[in-house]
């Protein structure tokens, strides 16, 4: 007996077959081809996204003979598309969370910022769902517009639903009542009657019936949530102050703040992590929009040979960089800002530039931890996952700048493990979150080697870079 855990992410889709004791029996992966054209554009074709799911699942199933009892789904959170509700056909490209073409729609609604923050926990920004929905509706007049999870679930089961953790990333969901808000929807000219039904994260959604996945026909889809809180769940961040950061396409820092939503006063987002067994957990989060994509930029421009070569880079030698290639999320919320680099002399070369950009990822995450501390939440250990955690250089710099202990999750697929645990709970009512609390130990631990004064001095200088980029972006 086994679970299939699907992680439909930005750069591709992973599928894991997970056995009864939590062991990974097999896996599949299919990449997504993203288009980054004109400034602010980030999208992919809906067919490519769907086929990546089908391919990843079939690869995973080919590697295991276990009977599949349930499928769990994690999604990108803030990515959307238009589609025909009668047959599931896509009517637009998938607009990826990084896309900032709706920035002007956010500017037009800035007078509502305080109200929106107080109800939704979110800053009005094109990163979130509502402005992208309005932007897309201006261009596609037919069909429904939803987050990608609703479309995927509809194709798999025929149900028109979204889970509450995904809904909390839309700017349309009231954190306090855990329901769609007519007042928030009115700000965007949207009708809550068009929105999918809300379900809790441990719901049994329906039986899979799509002809592309005959091997799973009749298996229940059980358990759905956003990818980042799925990783929070996998890394057992069940108590207030427990935090994780995923270093993937971007870097996403989430801190559990307990059963009551706390609205940030320092530029962070507040969202619902999950509602499981009728119990809710909320989190503060901040985002580095380009982490692995910043590393890929270094590779594409021949400043770095490969991600594995990060650990061979020299010291930055006084060079500093802010990798804001897709603007800045929390705590600055400046979608039009740019990446920047400073401190170059004739003695510097490719290696120092590349190292400075890598260090800049760690600096952004450290800045987010500072905002969390300013909001009154103490984080002493940071649990981390994602491909870039393989870099000792980046992880040690993260410990040095953040002045916290870094614990590396031992599995490369934290989100999949989290949604696998969720699907297990959805289908086994006797299980609770606490049953997964002691299921892993760090693969590596990094302790700060810098003094607090040295870390603060570095960050004080580094913060002038995104500030300069913000100014130049608005000239």
UniProtKB/TrEMBL annotation:
UniProt GO BP: glycerol catabolic process
Organism: Candidatus Planktophila limnetica
GO molecular function: ATP binding; glycerol kinase activity
Alphabetized InterPro entries for the sequence: ATPase_NBD, Carb_kinase_FGGY, Carb_kinase_FGGY_CS, FGGY_C, FGGY_N
Domain Carbohydrate kinase FGGY N-terminal: 3-233
Name listed for the protein in its UniProt record: ATP:glycerol 3-phosphotransferase
Domain Carbohydrate kinase FGGY C-terminal: 243-426
Matching SUPFAM superfamilies: Actin-like ATPase domain (SSF53067)
PANTHER family per UniProt: GLYCEROL KINASE (PTHR10196:SF69), SUGAR KINASE (PTHR10196)
Alphabetical keyword list: ATP-binding, Kinase, Nucleotide-binding, Transferase
Keyword Transferase set for record: yes
GO CC annotation terms, alphabetical: cytosol
Domain of life: Bacteria
Family the entry assigns: Belongs to the FGGY kinase family.
